[in-house]
Every structure is written in structure tokens, then in C-alpha cells.
Amino acid sequence: MNSRRRRGAVARGRHGEFRSRHVYDRGCGSPTEEAKELFATLHRYQGVLGVIATLSDGAVITSTMPGHDDTNRYARMAAGLCSESRSIMGAGHKGQPSYFTVKDGNHEIVITPGVVYTVIVVKQQQEPPEEAFQ
């Protein structure tokens, strides 16, 4: 029976929920492996200091940041920004921003909020060329 299912079809899960078969058709065995692949891909970009995955309330799931204090600080900041954006957008607005970019003196923080998970990427801010100031 499985051989007759179309690729990408919706299959019935064990407890009555429906799940997409795309996750399993791409070669990734589980969502955990897919998340590890995403972290590795993001970490290869130049200047990336760390990647953090949190729940929507700010609880850290996993992180590649070197220190726990920095990880928790970025997670709390992201949870606050996401919460604030939802309240500003109001209940009538169906969507939410796809990402935020926050820049400070040395770092650029890219926050990608989701319904359940939030991904935070901390990058070293690029220095502008010297001739830009002349």
C-alpha cells in the first residue's frame, strides 16, 4: 500500500494527526537531523558566531553559542521582541514578521520567529570599507 502513495502525500499519523511525508522523502530521518543540518549550514557563513533555537516563550532548545549567559540573554531578547511584534500587529493581522535584524556595536542578531520555534543567528557585524568615511 505504501508503494502506491504519491510522493509528498499527507499520511495519517499514529494518533490521528496528519503529517507530511516530505520530511521523510528528503533523506532526513527526523526533524532533529533536519535541525542539525540547518545549524551546520548557518554556521558555515562568514562571521556567524552562533545559532540558537528556542521555543516561542524563550526557552532554549539548543545552541552553538559558547556561553550560557549570552545564549539566555539573546533568547530572552528574542522572546520579548516577538511578543511585542505580535501585540503591535494585533489580533486582526494574520501574519507576523518573517525576521528581525538587530544591530549593536559589534554584533548583528537575526531573529526568525515561528509559531512554535524561533531561530536566532548571531553574526559579527561587517566593518564598512575605509573609503566609505572619506
From TrEMBL:
InterPro entries: Roadblock/LAMTOR2_dom. It holds the Pfam family Robl_LC7. Residues 35-124 form the Roadblock/LAMTOR2 domain. It comes from the Eukaryota. Belongs to the GAMAD family. This is Roadblock/LAMTOR2 domain-containing protein. It comes from Rhipicephalus sanguineus (Brown dog tick).
